[in-house]
Amino acid sequence: MGALPPRPSARHDDRRGLAAGDARTVQARDQRDRGRRHRGAPMTLGFVGLGVMGGRMAKRLLDAGHRVIGYNRTRAKARWLADAGLRLADSPREVAAQADVVFTMVTDSPALDAVCRGPDGILAGLRRDAVHVEMSTVSPEAVRTLADEAATRGAHLLDAPVSGSPATLEAGQLSFMVGGDPATLERVRPYLAAIGPGLTHVGPVGLAKAMKVAINQGLAVQMVAFAEAVLLAEKAGIARERAVEALLKSVLASPMVKYRGPFVLGMPAEAWFDVGMMQKDLKLALDLGRTTGVPLPSVAVANELLTAARGMELGRYDFAVVFDVLAAMSGLAPSAKA
């Protein structure tokens, strides 16, 4: 194959070649990228979805010295990351076209579809041999379909949802469940480690999403149990503050209960994980339970209590506000609000 004619720049060459479907340009770009990786040159990381969790994850990558390009639907909310060194892109496609590894962390399946598909989506710009690390909580089927589409472009996908909250993330205690090819996981392990130390490979693509759904349904059920324990103690004559103190020192105090339990005394103004987001995950759990034949009666009850919370116009609060629903049913005062 003859040499390509001179172009103004490699980046300009990529855009023109991709737009025109120039196979020679794509091949030359892939050879250049592989050579750069083999020489140990720093890789560019992409991050799409810079919200409460995604933004903090991207910041940890920046703090670890990585070069990061990112995109957020509401650009203004990511300005603080630009001030910290992240380069803001105008589209998910632009992120994918310039990154060796692309992380996504969005709210739900429609949001994931919006950033991945279409002319400005990640798939339109995803490089050959790039890795897409998908961290959102969506159905196993959704991420398997996405993995198949990435494969048609010669790219790889891992599903890597996380367990934790903004507090555990900032403390460096976030954990990952990963589904996908083990060799691909090893390529991105250092970047995941920069975000959080815990990592469990659970099997093929899609199984990590199933694991995340199983974990999140447990969070809702635990919160209901904690709320019931506080209210039972209070109704029996123990001050609410004293009941919370005793429970947080007891065997009931899981890591989640330790940081979310105090919300029954004072609900934060900004939800860590609001009612609607938790109900989205509970629906995924109930759907998975139906398809696998696993009854989830406590999940169904938790979901109905959260529906009641929305009926009481409490949907904007953290899902710990399920306490207020049970408090009202018990004839007791709700949690204080910031």
The gist of it:
Helix 3 links the parallel strand 1 and strand 2 (67-71). This protein has helices at residues 10-20, 23-38, 52-63, 79-83, 92-98, 109-116, 122-125, 140-151, 166-170, 182-195, 207-235, 240-248, 255-260, 275-292, 297-311, 322-330, and strands at 44-48, 67-71, 87-88, 101-104, 131-134, 156-159, 162-163, 175-179, 198-203, 266-267, 336-337. Helix 11 (207-235) packs across helix 14 and helix 14 (275-292) runs antiparallel to helix 15.
Structure description:
The protein is α/β, with parallel strands linked by helices and 338 residues long. It folds into two domains: 42-203, Rossmann fold (3-Layer(aba) Sandwich), CATH 3.40.50; 210-337, N-(1-d-carboxylethyl)-l-norvaline Dehydrogenase, domain 2. Helices cover 53% and strands 12% of the residues. It contains 16 helices and eleven strands. The protein has helices spanning 10-20, 23-38, 52-63, 79-83, 92-98, 109-116, 122-125, 140-151, 166-170, 182-195, 207-235, 240-248, 255-260, 275-292, 297-311, 322-330; strands at 44-48, 67-71, 87-88, 101-104, 131-134, 156-159, 162-163, 175-179, 198-203, 266-267, 336-337. α8 links the parallel β5 (131-134) and β6. The longest helix has 29 residues, at 207-235. The protein is elongated, with a radius of gyration of 23 Å. The chain starts with 9 loop residues before the first helix and ends with a strand.
Distance between the termini: 67 Å
Percentage of residues in strands: 5-15%
Query: Could you say which structural class the secondary elements and strand pairing correspond to?
Result: alpha/beta
How many helical elements? Answer: 16
Overall tally of domains: 2
Mean pLDDT over the full residue set: 90
> From N to C, what is the helix and strand string?
HHEHEHEHEHHEHEEHEHEHHHEHHHE
- Biggest sheet, open or closed, and with what strands and sense? 6 strands, parallel
The Rg value, from CA coordinates, equals 23 Å
CATH superfamily of the largest domain: NAD(P)-binding Rossmann-like Domain
CATH architecture designation of the largest domain = 3-Layer(aba) Sandwich
- Write down the overall geometry: elongated
Number of strands: 11
The strands making up the biggest β-sheet line up spatially as 3-2-1-4-5-6
Low-confidence spans? 1-39
**What fraction, in percent, of the residue positions are helical?**
40-55%
CATH topology type of the largest domain: Rossmann fold
